[in-house]
Amino acid sequence: MKTDRGSFNAHHYRYSPSMSTFLVECDAATWQAYGFEHKTIEESQAICEEIFADALDGHPLVSNKSVWRNFPWIWNENWSHGNRVLIGDALHTAHFSIGSGTRLAIEDAIALTKALEAETEISAGLARYQAERKPIVQKLVTAARTSADWYERFPEHMKLDLMDFAYSYITRSGRIADARLRAMSPEFMARYEASKKIGSQA
Fold first, then answer.
1. Overall domain count for the chain
2. From first to last of its 202 residues, what are the pLDDT tens digits of the chain?
3. CA neighbours closer than 13 Å in the CB half-sphere of residue 94
4. Structural domain contains residue 71
5. Which of 61, 6, 52, 67 lies closest to 31 in space, CA to CA?
6. Which residue range is the domain that position 48 belongs to?
7. Residue 56 burial (CB < 10 Å; 0-12/13-18/19+)?
């Protein structure tokens, strides 16, 4: 959402029939232009309700200690100590723009259970958990960081034409190459590639 003082983006997804998570994001310049540093939670909420009035369709935002903060990047090289083990956000964080935080935590728990069941010693099970799970998580966390970097330059992307913006958004995490996108959505890729040919001819 573009305003006269900068651009905002919202990540929202339903978690119950009547409630949705609604995360508002903006770059540092926009945050400073609105003076959010000096705003109360209620003042920030009112501004966001006004900016996203169309998306909210008349519904208010419900604050849950909704303070502005930078995304907390967490990554641990060692996943356990003694008989203590980390999973989920305590172990690694994945930016909400790829929507995998909860899934990663659940999959960590499943991988940990299977690793412990496969070994007779807890230490061996924990070592197996880290060895088997770490490469998988590392790929997803890397994709999440790449996606987060894309959102850091969101105002620049908003200047792109429709097809370039769509292509940039879909491929932002680096997990979807042209060949995969062509297989997933051949009509979109045909339109996108046609727009590139028209642009080069002009």
1. 3
2. 889 898 898 888 888 998 988 989 988 889 999 999 999 999 999 999 999 999 898 889 998 888 898 888 999 999 999 989 999 999 999 888 877 778 899 999 999 999 999 999 999 999 999 999 999 999 999 998 999 888 888 888 888 999 999 999 999 988 888 999 999 999 999 999 888 775 555 4
3. 21
4. no
5. 6
6. 2-56
7. middle
- CA 114, 101, 151, 161: dihedral to nearest 10 degrees? 80
Q: What residue type is 146 in one-letter code? A: T
Residue 36 is classified by DSSP as G
For residue 197, being part of any structural domain is answered with: yes
DSSP 61: P
Q: Is residue 70 part of a domain?
A: no
Using alpha carbons, select from 28, 10, 29 the residue that is nearest to residue 20: 10
Same domain, 116 and 176: no
